[in-house]
Amino acid sequence: MDVSGSVSSQRRALISAFATLSGLAMLSAHVGARAIGAGPRLVNDPFAAGIASGSPSPDGFVLWTRLLAPELLNAGPVPVRWEVFDEGVGHRVIASGESWAEPALGHAVHVEVTGLRSDTWYGYRFMAGEAVSASGRARTLPASGATVDRLRLALASCQRWESGHYAAYRHMRVDSPDMVVFVGDYIYERAGASAGRGEARHHDLPQARTLESYRARYALYKSDPDLQAMHAACPWLVTWDDHELENNHGGTWSITDTPDFAARRVASYQAYYEHMPLRAATMLAGLQGLQTGAGGLRIHQHYDHGRLARLYLLDNRQYRDRPLCGKAPKAAEARVCLGQEPTPRRSMLGRAQEQWLEGALRDAHGAGTAWNLIAQQTRFTPANYGHGLGVSAGTDGWDGYPGARQALIDTLVASAARNPVLLGGDIHKNWVAQVHQNPYSIASPVVATEYCGTSISSGATAASAPADAKARQGNPHCLFVHSRKRGYGLIDLSPERMVVTLRGLEDVTRADSGIDTLATFVTEAGRPGVRSLS
């Protein structure tokens, strides 16, 4: 069996690129080429940040960990061993290897395993010195074109540490998804509030601005046992939103004109890579663009689950054009600004990503893929339908980029991709809606379905039943709004239908909170739109 670890040359190139961008001294070209041997003596558990898998393919996946222990503060590279084993009786080891946890990458380890059987669950673990990590579960994707009968995904986003506990992940584990789709705001960059100010839990970290402060924020979040356990339970597919860097930023600009934004951007991007199960090649291509000013990190990808589904992970944060009229224009201002979209229209995805998505959708149609799930950061359909195009629009979301939204809808129609579904997060509420060909005319055909999920813990923007009812009544394309509970979505796919179960915690401020099913919806194959099952 041909099984390999992460490609050392790509790791060296990544380290060099990050070093160049951040002004650090260039590392030796021999990074990653050492013989496994001595490392610092580890007294404390080095696996305090947990383990994870992600970026699956039909023959492999990425395994991740980051070594954290006080004795590593000023330590050099640390040798780390890894094993992949059969989940059957005896846990037979079928692949193993050795890697280095480099200080230049925060002692993070990314192992790219290949040569495995398709559509198969595996166990894995790491070892450093005498320490052994917990065991995790990873899976490969079905082979391209394979006939697949089912897929279960969990949809999650927005997990501000202070706002609540991660009890949602404890319940998600019981639901046993095949993969978690996380659509942004894995961390929040803001400084911790004073203790006793109504937060569920407290931290005193400063606002994240430097590589070390972003690393500290991820270390805090990843110390949560429920989050760790969910990462170990199945692969995660991840994209980011704004708080991984700075609130409401876009591309190379800061909405608040942060003076050190360029350096902060590089630091946040490196910290993101260090803490996510991402492939080196994906990040390296983006870093080369970041060096030349031609682009940033390549987060957008698609994953095929046989012929059953293609899942697209989009990045509507990094390549977007600047908003018009500021963040939240008044109605009179919006009529002038957003109601008169400039030519050419502004983009949320950037032209290159738009072209990539169009091609991938057409390819999926040609391959006979049954479902096309488009995961992106935020609500897609209008929340200002009653006011009309460009009025009472928050300009950070799709309502502030109406031309870009219409272009994506037109692409869905033109591609003839089967059963398109938009998935999102960001707004801290559940929002289920029909996607009409003209989003401001419910008389136009329904061409897709939208399921925008609530947050894992972050607070709601309008946490009251009257506010939810008002939003629902003013937006006739919307079937369901619920902002009062935190939780996640559970997506069950078969060739015939997609069933979405919305799960809400009883009390996010309690680590032992129970959970309820808020609503269940179904989208039938070949029939765009959604109907309630509860």
Summarize the structure.
This protein has 534 residues and is α+β, with helices and mostly antiparallel strands. It has 10 helices and 22 strands.
Q: What is the strand tally? A: 22
Count of alpha and pi helical runs = 10
Tell me the distance between the termini. Answer: 48 Å
Largest sheet: 7 strands, mixed
Structural class: alpha+beta
Helix % is 10-25%
> For the residues shown, what is the average pLDDT?
89
Radius of gyration: 22 Å
CATH superfamily of the domain at 300-323 and 336-487: Alkaline phosphatase D (PhoD)
Read across the widest sheet, the strand sequence of neighbours is 11-10-9-19-20-21-22
Q: Which class of the domain at 300-323 and 336-487 in CATH terms? A: Alpha Beta
Q: Give the strand content.
A: 15-25%
CATH architecture of the domain at 300-323 and 336-487: 4-Layer Sandwich
Residue ranges: pLDDT <50 for 5 or more in a row? 1-6, 24-33
Give the overall shape, derived from the CA principal axes: globular
Provide the CATH topology of the domain at 300-323 and 336-487: Purple Acid Phosphatase, chain A, domain 2
Domain Phospholipase D N-terminal: 50-140
Protein name: Alkaline phosphatase
Pfam families: PhoD, PhoD_N
Organism: Hylemonella gracilis
